[in-house]
Structures are given as structure tokens and as C-alpha cells.
Amino acid sequence: MYGVTGHDEEALRAQIREAVARIGRLREREARFVPGETQVHYAGRVFDERELQAAVDAAVDGWLTLGRHSVAFERAFARAMGRRRALLANSGSSANLLATGALCSASLERPLVPGDEVITPALTFPTTLNPILQYGLIPVFVDVEPGTLNLDAHLLEGALSVRTRAVALPHTLGNTADLDVVTAFCQAHGLRLLEDCCDALGTTWGGRAVGTFGDVATTSFYAAHHMTTGEGGMVYTDDAQVFRAAQSLRDWGRDCWCEPGVSNTCGKRFDWELGGLPRGYDHKYIYSHIGYNLKPLDIAGAVGLVQLEKLPRFHAERRANFGRLREALAPHASWLEPARSLSRADPSWFSFPVTVREEAPFGRAELVGFLEARRIETRSVFSGNILRHPAYRAIPHRVVGELRETDRVMERTFFVGVYPGLTPAMLDHMVASFRAFLDRRPR
User: Are 120 and 155 in contact (CB under 8 A)?
Assistant: First the structure.
């Protein structure tokens, strides 16, 4: 029986890559948009044959779990974001859990502990809030700023108490709060800042990327987001202690930090003495945190490397698509209120959020129903007021103010897509549909 040489394997891989590329090109040719019949999604993956080839190539490696592609993706992502370290996880929700858990790690000089308060907006996504609750921290909810859908930074001082230890800041739908005020507040009071950038990869404040202002940041690579690995998420930080804690939590809670397939990085694998264990206990099986297994498949890392190269183009197309819709709806500003950004913000928009004003002769449900009937997907702004949901009615928390704008968003705001998969014909159909609905209304 003959073995397969390296040359043979590479030749076979080249054949596989070409076959996969042909499948990808065939699918692109088969795609055809029919207004009113073809679904106009609010989000979705934007792939060509390169992502398909990367995924198949990683699968052929046979490693499957987190490996060389994921490690390369972590390093490339950290460089692209201007952070020293990045840690790949199996979802953005897991990234939030790891980031929060890391800030609670006993390995830090002043970890967050149960009962500490974390200021965060009531307009949120559940898995931004859930880790706060899961680690025994107390969320303190504040309202969002009219028009931006983001935390009203000028409410922070009123939310402060002797128990306040952190701010958890989601950058909603690609927009951002006043980061000058937020960071000054955190610095003045010695607070940790966790940035949830799951909707906002590529957004900048004063020319600086969101995700670089806080102690730790997260993002998501779910199919709906700015770039995708199918499922996946990232924790990124400049803080070596926070990174190590997050890495330990992701990898079963173990103390070892070796990369996949590597042993004895520390040079004393059998020479540690930690906890109540006998000296020399295998460092690979010493646990310094109560952790999880939140690693991704290595296929995610391979796809992520390709998507990361396309990210600048994705940002440009999102901004252009948002501008097209905003311009089209400008004549109807007395009825519809598109989201606005602050002067120092340059959002890479996740979507096009619009609020039906109280003065409009129709409600949100009527407009949404019309668009959906024309096969244009819409979504509400995530939870609206998270405290209105059954799961959160009895959680320990504080509320500062009346959450009036949060409730308004819950009742009157929705969004449509701006993602790069939208073709000019799809955007034309969206604009025509808005106009068909609005132009028939008496003024």
C-alpha cells in the first residue's frame, strides 16, 4: 500500500480548491433578484469562493478544534483593531461572558465581586446583560439618548454609587455614545469599561476605533454581523492579566496557556506547586478558574482571516447604503426619524434604524407590515426595554430615571438592512417601498 506524499496531498488540495471555487461561482450566477418576491434580508454573510476554500482547506487538515488558523486569526485581528491581544471564542455571547468573567477573576488586583454595580443601558441585547447577572453583579440601568439609541452619557454621574465598579457599554447598531464623557467618567471614578462592539466593528470616535477605549472589548462573528465566521466572537484587550483570565475561562479554567498542540511553553510543566496539589502536578491539568469550553472550530479561524481582509470594503458599503436610505427618507422627516450619530462618531452601521414619530398618521406596525409584505425584512431594536421581558422582571437591579426614551424605542423603532449583500436593485426596491407607503398618506 502506497502512502500519500506531500506533493500528492497538495495536488489533491488544489483540485478540491478549484472544485469549491466552481461551486461558489455557480451559486453567484444562479442568484437573481425579483422585487416583491425575493427576500431582502436585513443582514447575512457576504462570501465568495475564498471563504468556501478556506473552510474546506481547514476541514481537510483534520484538526477541527481551535488550531493554527484560529491562532493566526487572533493575531491578525488584534493588529487590525490596534489591540495587543485577541482571544477567539465560539460566539459573541461567549465573548461577553469571558470578558465579564475576566474582570471578576481573582488574578486581578481589584476584581469585580458579587454585589458590585455595573452601569449599562436598558436598551440592550440579552447576552450583554446576562454575564453581569451570572457573575452576581448588579446592573444599574440608564436611559438612551434620543436619536442615537445609545447610553446617555450625561446620566452616568446620577447613576454612580459607592458600589459602582464598571460600565458595560454596547455600541447599539453600529452607533456609539459620547466616549469622551464615558471614558472621563470611568477614569475619574476608577471604573472598568467593557465595550460590546458586536454591532459596531469599524465604528470610530474621533478617528479612533471603538473597542480601544475600554479595559476589554468584545465582538461577534455571527452571520448577521459586520464580518462572519458563521458562529464566533472575539475578546480583545491590552491588559495581559485580563487576557490570561479570559483565556483560562475559555479553556476549561486551566492554568496552562500553551497554544493548541503545544506542551511546556512555560518550561516547567512538571515543576509547579499551586493550590493544594502535589508539587510537579501536570500544569495542563491545573485549574485556576471555574471555567468553560468556549473554543471555536478551526474552520472559523480560517474563514475569519479571509473576511478580515474584506472588512474595510464592508464598512464603506454599509456607510454608503445607510446614506442612500437616509437621503431617500429625508423628505419625510416630519413622520420618520432615522437614527443620528454624534459629531465625533463615524458609525459603521449595523442597520438602518428608523423611529415612527408621534405625529405620523400611522404606527410602526402598519409600516412594518407593509414592508414585510413586500419581502423586506425588518427587526425591532433587540430587547427594547429589557426589563419588560419575562426573564428579567425579577432580577436584582437599580433603575436611574424613567427610561422614557428606551420605552419609545421599544414602541416606535425598527430597522432594515444596510449590509454589503444588498444589491443596487434591492436598495431601489426598499426606497420604492418606503415611498409607496408614505406618498399615499395625506399631509
Answer: no
